[in-house]
Amino acid sequence: MNQSTTYQDSSSRKLVILGAAESGIGAALLAKQQGYEVFVSDGGTIKDIYKQELAIHQIPFEESQHSMNLVLAADEIVKSPGIPEKAEIMKQVRAKGIQVISEIEFAYRYSKNSKIIAITGSNGKSTTTALTYDIFKRAGLDVAMVGNIGVSYAKQVATAPTEYYVIEISSFQLDDIIEFKPHVAILLNITPDHLDRYDYKMENYAASKFRIAMNQTGGDYFVYCQDDPVIMEHLETKPIISKLIPFTIMEPLKEGGYIENDQLNIQLNDGMGSEIVSMYDLALKGKHNLYNSMAAGIAGRTMNIRNEKVRESLVNFKSLEHRMEYVSTVRGVAFINDSKATNVNSLWFALESMETSVVLIMGGVDKGNDYSAVVELVREKVKAIVCIGIDNTPIHNALEKYVPTMVDTLSMQEAVNTAFKLASKADVVLLSPACASFDLFKNYEDRGRQFKEAVKEL
C-alpha cells in the first residue's frame, strides 16, 4: 500500500537530522523519499552499517562534530531522543527558533491513514509491544512492530508501510511530538526513571508519559493501569478525552481488563464476552506480566480481534531476548537472562515473579538507584548476590545485610561461574542488573549475550 503524501511542499525544505542511529537513519530515508533536502549530523561516530545506508541513498552526513552553520540553516530538525535539551547544540537551536520534532512525529506525518497502537511506561514496554504485535499477526492483520524495538517507525513507513503499527515509545520521543496521535495509547506504569532529564521532578516525567494521549479524540482509546498511583493521580488532575479503558488485578470491572476467579477477563461492551484465559496458562509469568497481557489483549480487542486469537497469543507467546528469557537448566539450576532490567523497578518485577530461591547477578553503572524497594523481595527470595561491575559499593551498602552471601566479580564468565557454585538444585540464577551496562559491556544486549555464552560453557 502506498499512503505517503508530500507534506508542506517538502522539496524546498531543509531537514537536519541530529543523531545517526536507528531512528535518525530511518528519518533520513523517509525525508529523502519525501523530497526534503536532508543533512545528517552526529556528534559521535556513526556505525559503518548506517554510513553505508546514507551513502547508498546519497544523503550527506557528518560524524564526530556538528557544523552549526548547516544545523542552524534547517527549516526543521529531527532530534535523536538521546540528546538532552541542556546540550549546547539544543540551546543554539532553540535560540534560533527552529521547529524540533522526534522521529516518531516525522513518521506519523506520512502514516496517518494507518491504525497506530502506541505503548509507553517505565517498565514492560518491549514485552507488551511484542505481545500486541503477536496478537495482531496471529489475527492476520497487516502489521509492523516499530519504535524502540526492532526497526524504526520512519524506516518502516519509508520502505514497507503497513495498515497497523505497534510502536514502543519512550518519554524522550514523546517530548518532541506535535501532532502524533495513536488510535490506541497504552500507559503501563510510571516509576522513577531518567529523572535527570526532568529536573528530578516526578510530575515532569509523568506529564511526559501522558503526552501519548494529548492529541487523542473521543474515537480513540487510552488504556492504562488502574493500580498505578502515579497514573491515577495524574488522571484526576488532567482528564483525557479519549475512551478510557483501565486494567487491574484488584477488582472486577464493568469495562476493561481484570482478574476474576483466576481468569483473565477483558470486557469492552462489544458483545464478544469477557473471559479470555486462565492466568495459570499465560506464557508470561509473574504479576507484572498479568498487566502486560491484559494491556496487549485490550489492544487486540479494540481492533475487533476475536478472543480465541488473543488467547492463542497469550498462551503461546515466547518472551523476548534479554527480558526474563529462559536460557538453560544446568544440573537442576535454571538460568534466566533479564539483562534489559536497567532500573530497580525492573529488578523488583523480576524477583516478584520468582517462585524458588534465587542467586542474583546484578550491578553495573548505578544511576543513583534507591534499592529500598527491593529489600523485602531480596530478604525473602535471594540466597546470594553476585555483583558485576566496576563499583559495587552502592549495592553492598543497600543490600549486604539482607543476604547470607555477597560476592564481587569483574567479568560475566566469573559472575556466572560463581553464581552456579552458590546455587543448589532447583534454584534460579537470575541476571537482573538494575543498572546500566556501560562499565563492562557495550550495551544490555552485549551483557545478555555474554551471560548466555557463559551459561553454555558451564
UniProtKB/TrEMBL annotation:
Identify the NCBIfam families for this entry: murD
Q: Per UniProt, what is the name of the gene that codes for the protein in this document?
A: murD
Tell whether Cell division is among the UniProt keywords: yes
- Pathways per UniProt: Cell wall biogenesis; peptidoglycan biosynthesis
Family listed: Belongs to the MurCDEF family.
Q: Look at the named UniProt entry and state the broad enzyme category this protein falls under.
A: ligase
Please list the residues that bind ATP. Answer: G121, S122, N123, G124, K125, S126, T127
Q: Which reaction does it catalyse?
A: UDP-N-acetyl-alpha-D-muramoyl-L-alanine + D-glutamate + ATP = UDP-N-acetyl-alpha-D-muramoyl-L-alanyl-D-glutamate + ADP + phosphate + H(+)
On whether Cytoplasm is a keyword of this UniProt record, the answer is: yes
Q: What is its EC number?
A: 6.3.2.9
- Please give the chief subcellular localization of this protein: cytoplasm
- Function, as annotated: Cell wall formation. Catalyzes the addition of glutamate to the nucleotide precursor UDP-N-acetylmuramoyl-L-alanine (UMA).
Task: Report the locations given in the UniProt record.
Answer: Cytoplasm
Please name the GO terms of the biological process aspect recorded for this protein, alphabetically. cell division; cell wall organization; peptidoglycan biosynthetic process; regulation of cell shape
Q: Which positions fall inside the Mur ligase central domain? A: 119-299
Pfam families with a match to the protein in the record: Mur_ligase_C (PF02875), Mur_ligase_M (PF08245), MurD_N (PF21377)
A single GO cellular-component term on record: cytoplasm
Q: What InterPro entries does the annotation carry?
A: Mur-like_cat_sf (IPR036565), Mur_ligase_C (IPR004101), Mur_ligase_C_dom_sf (IPR036615), Mur_ligase_cen (IPR013221), MurD (IPR005762)
Alphabetically ordered keywords of this record: ATP-binding, Cell cycle, Cell division, Cell shape, Cell wall biogenesis/degradation, Cytoplasm, Ligase, Nucleotide-binding, Peptidoglycan synthesis
Q: What is the protein name given in its UniProt record?
A: UDP-N-acetylmuramoylalanine--D-glutamate ligase
PANTHER family linked: UDP-N-ACETYLMURAMOYLALANINE--D-GLUTAMATE LIGASE
